[in-house]
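Appendix B, example 12.
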Amino acid sequence: MTSTLGPNSLETLPASGPPPKSRVRDASAALSIVMELSRANQARNRKWTLLQGMLDGNPPFSSAELRNSGQAFRSNFASLEGKSLSSAACTPFYELFSGGRTLAEVTLDLPINATPPPDVANRIVSEEFDRRLKEHPSLQIQIWQLLWDYVNFGRAHLMWEDETGWEFKQIKFARVLFPDSTDIDTEHWDYFVIRQEVPIHWLWQRIRDEKSAEARGWNVDACREAIRLAVPHDNAHGWHDYMRIQQDLADNDLYVSSKSRNIKLANLFVREFSGDWSWMVMVEDAMSSSTSGGAANAVAQNQAGVTMQTGPSFLFRKTGAFEAVEQFLLALCKHGFLLYRGVGGETSGRHA
């Protein structure tokens, strides 16, 4: 039987025989990995928050400490010079991104004697795909957010939330968690987590057609339970997300009680022994003691018809979903590519 190696609960090779098809045993093991990476990221999160606070205009010194040390007379305000320099630094990258004839180059797998010729067909499809990209309602804000993270924090990410579509979503860099000492080369990546906070309609759209959702890998019953138990974000429960607290402070939302109900998701991506990537989605609150923690629990009924909680459950799971990282995630780390994925998973791009 396959044994478990290390605190991250990933399955390893058995004493003899072939490797396991999936390195993640169940949802409990997956959530333990999310917990491990969240804990390991706390020190980095605090440092990122200090930098984000400077960009947001936080005072450079503590007013209380200045008063206690008899220096209350000193000026204590942010000049926002750092934010100005950062905004100016983003402009050349955006001009590089938008300066080409098209945002993406599409190459079709056509024979040489095809009609029309491959170069003509490639140009036509590239122009049509470029037009479709520019019709994306949030293209500009997604790209500017990507460049902001890239310039200020040295890392930025785009994620394709639907394995069958081309629409992408910018993911805040602090919500992409890697094991310590992870190499920048994607070929050396083993597993990582992407944290999301989505509205209830986002999840409902994915399971509205139940038969299609189940065929794609969604657990409809668990998703319904997650929607039913969705609650507003509460900094007093669960993991301390310092970057989220800083954002709430900047927006004057920290003590506001009129927030909409959202679902906190954790996407776990694991490279299997075959080299393919598996994709799992759980409710992140299931690993905390908050009242929403039961959202990821599978629901079962005994013979008397009484509903029982049977433990954490995947909202979505697909083993061997992707052949390469580039089919579901763009990662910029100082030197990289801006990539767009086609429906078939192929990618093309312009050096950034």
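The chain has one domain: 26-57+81-351. The longest strand covers residues 262-271.
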